[in-house]
Amino acid sequence: MKGRTLWLQKDDKGYLTPTLLTATLFGVLVCALVAGIFANKSMPPAEGWYSYYAYLINEQGAVPYVDFELLFPPLYTYLIAVFTRVFGYSIIALRILGVVLFAATGAVAVLIFDQLTDNRRFAMLAGPLAALVLQSEVVQVFYDYIRVMDLHVYLSVYFFLRYFARLDRGEERRYRLVDKHVLLGAVFAVLASMYKQSSGLFFLLFCYAVFLFLFILPSRKREYLRHLLTLLGTTVVLYGTMLLLLASKGALDEYFYYNFSASVSAKGGSLFDLLFGWILRDGKHLLTGSIVAVLFFAAVFVLSHYAKRFEDTENKPRSHRYWAILIGSTVLVAGGVITLGIRVLLRNNWYFFRTWKLMAVLVILALVFGSLAFGMILRRRLTPVPDGSRYRYFFLSGSAFVLAFAVCTSGGVTESQSALGYPLIAAILLPHLTFRRREIAACALSVVMLFEAGIAWGRKSICMYTWWGLDVGAIWEQTEGTDVPLLKGLRMKKEYAQMYEAVYRDVTAFTTPEDPIFVFPHMPILYLMTERDKATDTAIQWFDVSTDAAVIADIDRLKEHPPKMMVLSTVGDYAVASHESSFRGGEQSGLGAMRDFLPEFRAEQGYRLLGSYQVSADYTVTVWILP
Questions:
Q1: How confident is the model at residue 293 (pLDDT cuts 50, 70, 90)?
Q2: C-alpha–C-alpha distance, residues 583 and 273, integer Å
Q3: Total Cβ atoms within 10 A of residue 449
């Protein structure tokens, strides 16, 4: 059978067939296992921002944008508010929510690559690979708002691919005012933009661009016009509902200010800097990634010509397949050894390694998407018959490209949101595996995919969470529990457990619930943990979470009303200099001004050091009390 291999074999299409169900369950189990292993490990002080926002909403009736600053859309804030109202504020409860969300992401990723390739064996590898790469970013937790956005993006991609797959199967089109798959894809695309306005809006605008592009092609204009109107109508209904609710709370003007003007200013001051400033910051990585992309396309060209020359359409005897398994197993073992070697060699150059990988994926996806778009124009000029397979690769490569491009606009470039691109690049090779000994090539491709999954798993295990000097350590170092009520059930490094217990003891012993305290710069979980109000208007003073003006205004507020206790953490010179260089043109940020103000303020007011707790090499938490 043409194109048939031992590991990568096509299946008859169907809905929830046994093979598809098996592949999906495999994705669920792998992702649930991974998330479950990590669920009760570590407790970074910067976790819990939205838990505190939820507390303000639930317990104080606060309104986002009016009663506290929020530079992101409100949907996730209210989602966590609803969850915590039902299940409480325990971190372990939110971690369990993260397990469910990650398992769902793995399942949807399997379904995406099943729709793309009609190949459940490949999808069974591709889905967990995408999910593991997605979560390899070490500054996120499994229930983070970005992960919720990613799940909605993946659901949107899946339903749009279902629509394009129908074209490929040649099903007779019946007139529908609204196609259910397009409608569901539109709903999840709009919701994704309500969780994170940068990446989410990138993807939503891409969906508009796709159907506008299809509409201007010669045929099927009425059908694609209906899809455009479906997308537009969905956007109007969902955004209209959200804006009406915000208007009823008097937060409409503030929503537009914080989500667009203030958030853009926090990321560079202008839309152009936000969109393209990363090219200057990471130009050398982009160049390296472009070289890798050229080598990849050269390999695809050679493989394609080799497949055409030595094509073998007959099934191989079973003995040949056993021989292929033996060779593939050898390659697998060798791949494991190579993985360890590369991990050791790149131990001190991990940022460079992961960044050029992102850039290589970005360039490959851009070229694939552009080539498919050009090819679709030529094909539609020659024949009105749509090619659903080409449409699916077109849509998925474009989706992966815009997500990778969107994450490049962030200050900390990371490969996590380019996760769809990794198995997609592997899928590009599948049509060329039609030559003799193709089982070996299939095994080798599987080894490479497992290699990438191993890197993602290993990286997350070795470095569970690291962020501007805040490093919680490896998974095997998370052994200590704590009696702090909010953190029951968690295991963390000894230094972190001691810090939380000491801070909880100090705050509850030396202040009353009526005494506001000040926590700086990004640990509002301590307000929630100790049940104390904040002494400032801002709950978080981080660069892209609060505006510079609000943080500077809080300096005056502290002068007028010095809090009885302050809990301060280290903000390294490198973190401040990097953010101010990238997003402030070298000018001082609000966080930088607050950091420089605090030492003099402590001395003037006579604050006494109550405790100092070093939790990692570059991160110390200190507690100060006003006599």
A1: confident
A2: 8
A3: 19
